[in-house]
Specification:
Two copies of one chain form a homodimer.
Chain A: E1 2-7, E2 20-25, E3 34-43, H1 48-51, E4 69-79, E5 89-95, E6 99-103, E7 107-109, H2 127-139, E8 147-151, H3 156-167, E9 172-177, H4 180-188, E10 194-197, H5 204-211, E11 216-221, H6 226-232, E12 235-243, H7 247-250, H8 263-267, E13 271-274, H9 284-299, E14 307-311, H10 316-325, E15 331-335
Parallel strand pairs in A: 8-9, 8-11, 9-10, 11-12, 12-13, 14-15
Antiparallel strand pairs in A: 1-2, 3-4, 3-6, 3-15, 4-5, 5-7
Helix pairs in contact in A: 2-3, 2-9, 5-6
Chain lengths: 338, 338
């Protein structure tokens, strides 16, 4: 049988367990060109929250009763495509299920010559690593000796952004996170020179100014809202604001207030550049370049990361909720099958 | 004697005549490397409004009692620099004065081989032409067959942006302006396929969607506020939002509300790119390329424009006020001296 978590009702604000329902359906059969993938890990990505909203929200809404979609890591069990063979480990868009049948092109084989553990493909060698590397270096166009500011800096993406910035010669890397524990990890493990605890900071703009008196050449935005407003007060001439996600907007019941200081973009001839990692996933050669560089850093011990693995299919809804409460440490994934 | 308009008090909201005071001072003497320029035309640019605000606003504030600064067109009367000779027509940053003494490098000679009238150097062959051309083509990176949306489309910059977009093969060019007269001019004279009268439009976002069902590849932003919010609802994948100015912010007493739909940037992997024409003014070769192309369009009758010349030094404060009330037609300049 094929277990699935489906959308029982649309969450209002933070997602709750009761928004999801478990069902069992037959294992799907594949058609020509498709593969059957047994899902080993389901990735808990904040962006999934967007798909759960009703029409009129930003993303194409997931119909009620549909399996929840997201990035998965799995193994090919059956194939009707020359592109993928049985036994290959693949990643791609799947769902919160034991099995998914889809065109082979929806999945890409994870490189097995990088000498890494399976879990690594859920984090630095998966979409998170690609997001951090591509966002900071290609979208943000970070140059050596520049300064970097990162919101959500102790999260999966942020934890890599800080380290990659340092590995590429950034002069100063400042993070923003919520709570002393996250700030400690950011500085001790993830390369940050300083971390601002926004929960303990009355004037975030002033706190950033103190931590980065010259301003940020690159601001890596994961959060939005008040973070973006405070960051806009502290950008350098020709700064790049890289928008990877706006977590503050995902669970918002009301539209998130926009920054009132966009004029700072003009004063600094700065840019806001949004990107989606999904757009680069089909660029296999580019992706391989990114992951090879990251694999080399891992092998030489210069890039640390943590995968927070929750165990079992039934753990998915609560794990997803943890993503927004901050009750996790590192990249949050659920191991569904061995 | 040298007449000057100085800042008498900081405007609150729209600038009034009483915010400025007239005084007479001696004609300045020049030092080594400087030139004395007799000002012929003072340009009425919305950006000047920013300099009048107090510290804490976005720009470096002009001290009370100082001459109002801005772009001028003038003639070299005395020179102590080999770079500029007496009699040359030059443009650069000056002030609302009869004479200004400044380093020769502050001024650039207007090209006298483009076969144009003196007034043309205040508009298509001056900073306005450079703003429209550079902003749309280099910053906005407009490609043929793309769609363009322009706020403030009947203003000086907007009137050129629409025409340049069409000359470069844009598929559809839609403008936003206030009032039927401006909208008529935009469509009849300035190349716009359609113009939305925002004063007569309850739902600006829906009106843009109707005029541009496929969305805007480039949005040329002169205004900000509600315009930006509505435009963000109507951008294409990989859209470029070019921010030239945010007129709505200039006279705002309270901070302008920010767009609540920045998530659309992520959905569309779009960019906001701000620029200042002042940054390209020192790039003489690039500027000359821009102005040569514009001069060719003028000569072949393919670019129309209007200079609204107000006469006399005393007309400056009221002319500046007209800039924000919309009681002008085309590029607003004041002719100070012959």
């Amino acid at each position: 049988m094929n277990r699935q978590w489906v959308l029982a009702q649309r969450p209002v604000g933070l997602p709750r367990h009761s928004d999801f329902a478990k069902r069992e359906v037959p294992v799907p059969t594949i058609k020509d060109g498709e593969v059957l993938v047994k899902i080993l890990y389901a990735m808990m990505d904040p962006a999934i929250r967007n798909f759960l909203n009703a029409a009129g929200s930003y993303m194409t809404p997931l119909p009620l009763g549909s399996p929840i979609v997201g990035v998965v890591l799995g193994r090919v069990e059956q194939t009707a495509s020359p592109a993928l063979q049985v036994g290959m480990i693949v990643s791609g868009f799947g769902s919160w299920s034991d099995y998914v049948a889809a065109p082979a092109g929806n999945f890409s084989r994870v490189p097995d010559d990088l000498g890494s553990r399976l879990e690594d493909y859920t984090h630095p060698l998966g979409t998170i690593g690609a997001t951090a590397h591509h966002g900071l270096l290609s979208v943000g166009n970070l140059a050596a000796a520049e300064s970097v500011l990162v919101s959500g800096c102790a999260g999966a993406v942020g934890s890599l952004v800080g380290q990659i910035a340092k590995l590429k010669g950034a002069a100063r890397v400042v993070g923003i996170a919520g709570g002393p524990e996250k700030c400690r990890r950011a500085c001790e493990s993830y390369g940050y020179d300083e971390c601002i605890d926004y929960k303990e900071t009355r004037d975030l703009s002033a706190a950033i100014r103190k931590a980065l008196p010259q301003g940020a050449n690159v601001y890596f935005e994961n959060v939005g809202g008040a973070m973006l407003q405070a960051a806009l007060d502290n950008i350098t001439k020709n700064a790049r604001i890289v928008v990877c996600g706006l977590i503050a907007a995902y669970n918002a019941v009301e539209p998130l207030a926009g920054p009132t200081n966009l004029w700072n973009l003009v004063v600094n001839t700065a840019q806001i550049r949004a990107f989606r990692v999904a757009d680069i996933l089909p660029q296999h050669a580019y992706l391989r370049t990114i992951h090879s560089e990251i694999a080399a850093w891992i092998k030489s011990g210069r890039l640390v990361y943590k995968v927070d693995v929750r165990d079992g299919f039934d753990a998915i809804p609560d794990s997803f909720g943890c993503l927004f409460s901050g009750a996790h440490d590192g990249r949050l994934v659920v191991k569904i099958n061995d």
